[in-house]
Amino acid sequence: MAQSTDLDLVSVVKRFGAHAAVNDVSFSVAPGEFFSILGPSGCGKTTLMRMIAGFENPTSGDIRIRDKSMIGVPANKRPVNMVFQSLALFPMMSVGENVAYGLTCRGVSRAEAEERANRMLERVGLKGFGERHVTALSGGQRQRVAIARCLVLEPTLVLLDEPLGALDLKLREHMKIELKQLQATFNTTFAYITHDQSEALVMSDRIAVMNQGGFEQVGSPRELYHHPATPFVASFVGETNRWQGDVAAASNGAISVRLPSGAVIQGRDHGQSQVVGKTALAFVRPEAIALAQETSALSGLPNRFEGRVSAVLFDGANSSLLIDTVGFDEPVRAVLPQAGQLAGIQVGEAIHMGWSADAVKVFSA
Fold this sequence. Notes:
Helices cover 23% and strands 34% of the residues. The chain is α+β, with helices and mostly antiparallel strands. The protein is globular, with a radius of gyration of 25 Å.
């Protein structure tokens, strides 16, 4: 019978004195899944990972790997391997010795350990690197050695703690794709922690968004991005505009939010059953905002405003505009089109913008 889950956490709590660093967290990870825990610094994700690895014991709750409880099982006896941000490679050993180290510790003969290490190096794209010194490798190559050293032990579960954090941006972008491909090739279960939302969105099958010791939402990258369940998820995952106001009207799923200036935003009630007069938060993604030189071009949209460009944030295909708009206390952020009349727009120019009611996510504040 196929194993249904590789990792289960059941009501795990970790207290340090009166502070609950991890507060009643439960989740399951399926075999071969790339599962990420995404959250800001200090949200409890590293503590959670250390408990799975066996470096910390939970105050209460259970941690199961393939249906076996790991409570009381020391770190070196768990079918788990961890890759840290520091990578923790041995500088005095060659690449091959680093990869074979865990095997020789387990009593595998030197010849077999070396052969398995070389096979693993080939699979991570480092064929012939066995004799080299770790210090002679680039950041990305070291990264792959750390992963090879971990995968050669055939763990049920690989834990990765911000492993790309120390790399430069270009290499990090490259390694994101490479890690995802490696994980798919080996079909090993990965549990990954990061504070970098683009890392989590690009690589994961599912993501748990963590905040203040608990999970806010667990879902696919697409679900979290398009259907955030809480204001925290809406603001933490992806770029967004966020406005606070009062519910002016709510009926049949339509909702109006009045900003302090009196400007009104028309949105949809996403199952939040809003009450008129109550404080609400409205979120709109920059890519959902249509831009035009004439307001007539936006005639079908219920939310139409006029503003002036206060900044052009150029970043190739990811460029955006900040637009000072009457009625909004902060500039509105919108994606800058790459072609057409607006592609060369300058600071200070007038611009019209609009968005649909469906693009607005409204939450009770």
